[in-house]
Design a protein that fits this description.
By secondary structure, the chain is α/β, with parallel strands linked by helices. The protein is built from 6 helices and 5 strands; from the N terminus they run βααβααβααββ. It has a 5-stranded parallel beta sheet with strand order 3-2-1-4-5.
């Protein structure tokens, strides 16, 4: 039986890097669950440059240097999804079917390609398409990391919910 798989968008890693309030601890707990072997985690290769934006934008705290960011992504539990033609086509479909922005579409498409059970994000603007389907694609559950730490992780067999 396959382990549950969670997809983490760049916002999850930015929260960890910057130590954003409670979301940082919730986001770290996802990685810790993967380290314990409780689930698999995946992210797009696009996440790497997204968390490395210029420090002048305020996206990443100046105290976080290259070694810190690189260290996070050297974790062997992370499965990387390449943005290949299949992911590109899925991202186009997300844009056409749901009107999402390009970067969000790439993350959603990558989650679909990774066969993720849930896509964790800190972007509440993505929640409106959670578990939506079109003839072309099926969006996985999209959740905020605040659910981590509850007795059950918020994915799996939806018939049990």
């Amino acid at each position: 039986m396959r382990k549950a798989r969670a997809y983490l968008d760049s916002g999850i890693f930015i929260a960890i890097i910057n130590g954003h309030e409670e979301s940082s601890e919730a986001c770290k707990s996802i990685i810790e669950a993967a380290t314990r072997g409780d689930l698999e985690i995946a992210t797009s290769c696009v996440t790497l440059p997204e968390v490395t934006k210029k420090r002048s934008t305020g996206l990443v705290k100046p105290a976080n240097d290259e070694a810190t960011i690189t260290g996070i992504f050297q974790n062997p539990v992370i499965i990387y999804v390449s943005v290949d033609p299949r992911v590109g086509i899925l991202a186009q479909q997300v844009i056409w079917d749901f009107g999402k922005q390009t970067r969000d579409s790439i993350h959603i498409a990558s989650a679909i390609a990774a066969d993720a059970d849930v896509l964790y994000t800190v972007d509440r603007g993505l929640l409106d398409i959670s578990e939506k389907s079109t003839p072309r694609l099926r969006v996985p559950r999209i959740a905020l990391p605040e659910f981590i730490g509850q007795p059950e992780l918020p994915f799996g067999d939806s018939a049990q919910e």
